[in-house]
């Protein structure tokens, strides 16, 4: 079909159409080689929080590139990493004190899992080796991250390679859900039963919103109850905020919005403002202290070639400054979503389970098929939207919006108008 040698991510190469070439990005717009302009309604896989080719990020990148582009991070440090680490700590719950750098969301989670596991090993609690995760959870595509995720049929193939975890139901909710308290109680009971066995190192959750599972939302109350259980049983609470971080939920972090404090917090995606791959895993002082020893074997032996890359850190510092200067950009989007949902989509016969969380809006498109991610409606909708000039990429039959924060109210309205138009033609 194409003479490109590139084997693309999450793509059945035989049936996928040849992808359009993007030649320029500006704000919410992507310009294609054939001259078309399309609106990026999903922040290019949830990373581009400030919009494309942001001048302040470009300038930070250039300034850093002509000073120091990269240096080994074992045995050396540099100002962008020091600044970013300090700045991040001013925005997260007080109990988080230490910052471990890596390169992407999957590595942030791998680091969290290894850190949590070794935390117990270092204290001689060798029985605490299992993790609790949530059905539908997505934490990345590396082996450890897949083990704690196991969300969909994507990785059935790899099942024999994954380590064993205990997966409990995620109490997903939506507008008008009458069952939410019962679902939460059931999950909490299951977790309590597991924790009684005293062999768990930690609980891993995407707080408030499960992303890849289809923007499934849980209540802050559930996280508060989960935190209570984790404390009661002395097990580590690990938040994967790779997607929810940096304003997505309407607050800078889901832990702030839910007034809960994890022991370990994973961040990536929006961390560099969507410019460069970068991740951090934040930990409490107690976790750090369990590694802090005269005994060399108690150190955390983990690192990547590009750990703490100065270019990525410099864009991270600037991105965070942009968020500090304009918090209303992500704080006000939920009200706009709600307004346009009501104006264009409420009660649409093709839709159900409409929900919003901060900058994210999601809904289920009714189909006769049940096979989640591989639902045929997804590529069909995607093609319709692309033809109309909008980048929307449904997860199975879940249609969602996750635009860059620089989108204007009128531009956001135009997405709802096109969704309405496309749904009416189905
Ligand atoms: C995207 C994502 C990851 C994986 O991040 P990558 O940078 O793609 O490796 C992990 N956790 C969550 C919640 C994510 O949304």
TrEMBL record:
Q: Name one Pfam family in it.
A: Aminotran_3
What reaction gets catalysed by this protein?
(8S)-8-amino-7-oxononanoate + S-adenosyl-L-methionine = S-adenosyl-4-methylsulfanyl-2-oxobutanoate + (7R,8S)-7,8-diammoniononanoate
**Marked site positions, Participates in the substrate recognition with KAPA and in a stacking interaction with the adenine ring of SAM:** 10
What pathway does this protein act in?
Cofactor biosynthesis; biotin biosynthesis; 7,8-diaminononanoate from 8-amino-7-oxononanoate (SAM route): step 1/1
Its localization reads: Cytoplasm
Keyword Transferase found: yes
Q: Which GO terms describe its cellular component?
A: cytoplasm
A molecular function GO annotation: adenosylmethionine-8-amino-7-oxononanoate transaminase activity
- Tell me where in this chain the PTM N6-(pyridoxal phosphate)lysine is found: 269
Give the record's keywords alphabetically. Answer: Aminotransferase, Biotin biosynthesis, Cytoplasm, Pyridoxal phosphate, S-adenosyl-L-methionine, Transferase
Name the needed cofactors: pyridoxal 5'-phosphate
Q: Which family does it belong to?
A: Belongs to the class-III pyridoxal-phosphate-dependent aminotransferase family. BioA subfamily.
**Record-linked HAMAP family:** BioA (MF_00834)
Q: How does it assemble?
A: Homodimer.
- Say what the protein does: Catalyzes the transfer of the alpha-amino group from S-adenosyl-L-methionine (SAM) to 7-keto-8-aminopelargonic acid (KAPA) to form 7,8-diaminopelargonic acid (DAPA). It is the only aminotransferase known to utilize SAM as an amino donor.
* PANTHER family for the chain: ADENOSYLMETHIONINE-8-AMINO-7-OXONONANOATE AMINOTRANSFERASE
Q: What is this protein called?
A: Adenosylmethionine-8-amino-7-oxononanoate aminotransferase
The species this protein belongs to is uncultured Coleofasciculus sp
The gene behind this protein is: bioA
